[in-house]
Amino acid sequence: MSLEKGLILVIDSHEGNLETVSSLLQNEGYEVVSARNGRIALDLLKQTFFNVVITALKMPGVSGMEILKFVKEQSPETVVVLMTGYATVESAVEAMKEGAYDYLTKPVNLSKLSVLVGRAIEQQQMVVEVEELRRKLDTRTSFQNIIGTSKEIQRVYETVLRVASINSTVLIYGESGTGKELVARAIHHNSPRRDKPLIILNCAALPEGVIESELFGHEKGAFTGAFSTKKGMFELANGGTIFLDEIGEMNLSTQSRLLRVLEEKEFMRVGGTKTIKVDVNIIAATNVDLEKAVAEKTFRKDLYYRLKVITIKLPPLRERKEDIPLLIRAFIDAFNRENHTKVQGVSREALSKLQNYPWPGNIRELKHCIESIMVTANRKIIEVNDLPAHIIQVAHQEPEIRLKAGVSMTEVEKEAIRQTLIYTGGNKTKAAKVLNIGLRTLHQKIKDYNLR
Ligand SMILES: Nc1ncnc2c1ncn2[C@@H]1O[C@H](COP(=O)(O)OP(=O)(O)OP(=O)(O)O)[C@@H](O)[C@H]1O
Ligand SMILES: [Mg+2]
Fold first, then answer.
1. Nearest CA to ligand 1 atom 15
2. Which of 84, 277, 376, 445 has the greatest number of C-beta atoms within 10 Å?
3. pLDDT less than 50: residues of the chain
4. Where does a domain end: 93, 116, 136?
5. Ligand 1, atom nearest to 323 Cα
6. Is the pTM of this model over 0.85?
7. Contact criterion met (CB below 8 Å) for 219 and 271
8. 402 lies in a domain?
9. pLDDT of the residue at 434
10. Ligand showing the shortest atom-to-Cα distance for residue 173
11. Which ligand is closest in space to the CA of residue 363?
């Protein structure tokens, strides 16, 4: 018997059934309390939290339906399973509407019971976790839609707040899909410039020549096709921020014009003669190594130094896997709201696969993945089978424990425990074995390190 697997209350006035069901569950390793009638059960329920309550529907005195209502009111996370004769199946279906998890017909099929309780416990634990994740999402784990509790992302929040208040050029580095645009927006919206425009220009999307006219505008007749005078982004963004995405793709001549604006805070429209003064802050982003581009002379060194005054490096998702459950939670909630669906979460096993996948497309890939699963799977709990094949396959590899030099032994231990738990799909007994420590020690450490 262990509390670890779950505490179950079985209620039936039919002694034979009560005995059979209770002893089966005991043999499966659950801690089981049996109650011969509903009155005894209510007393127990007032004192103790049960993971699962399995109750007969029809009993003299307090009925299964009353038990169900009591449990749902007092302890909504507790899963209730009903046992019923064929004659009363209809009332069992009725009870499902009141929040019962499922029902079994008598005589109870023991292997069905075992599977059902296993799932019920998993779901119950997940619901508790979901509540915890939601609480976390409400507090310090998200900042301007940037979600995460990892050290890496917390450092990003801090830098965003710091640079937002000081009006400095910022260079954001990060692989595709790591949230560069999200961070740029957060900086603007936390800065005193928030009421002024934020203008986004993707330098990779525009052909050479067009970028200059986009940035600085042009005078009528400046080039073929310039039929009228046009203001550029620097004029339009005056007082605000320009986000230059994929700045590594900007050509050298635009780079030198940009540098001049950054230094002198003034420029001329293409084909113009009048200098225009502006007050604009620049945030630039890139996923190429600008230092290398400087060495290869495709990026101006002076502009590079001018931009990198403050650099924000966004970590790839595979380096902050602990944020994955929280991100999934947030995406599920968001898509539920958007599409009026009621997906509750992902199963433990599926989560473990999702955490082991390396996510080359980072958060964008994770977001799209969750969205498409929710569209196709169409059920409450996303299971392993609902995941795309490439994610299931990769997950067969054993996860590595990755650490950077310069961390304490405590961090090493925390990471080892965290990764091992992911590896064992959350099974603590297995994890303790792999780590070669006692189960009780593991529990204590999970508590100390605040791991779930
Ligand atoms: N920390 C985060 N929390 C929640 N959502 C995020 C986070 N980071 C990124 N996203 C989401 O992931 C998607 C990609 O983010 P974003 O467009 O900012 O990435 P990017 O680095 O600019 O990518 P690319 O280099 O491909 O342009 C967006 O839908 C964004 O909302
Ligand atoms: Mg982007």
1. 179
2. 84
3. 1-2, 140
4. 136
5. 1
6. no
7. yes
8. no
9. 82
10. 1
11. 1
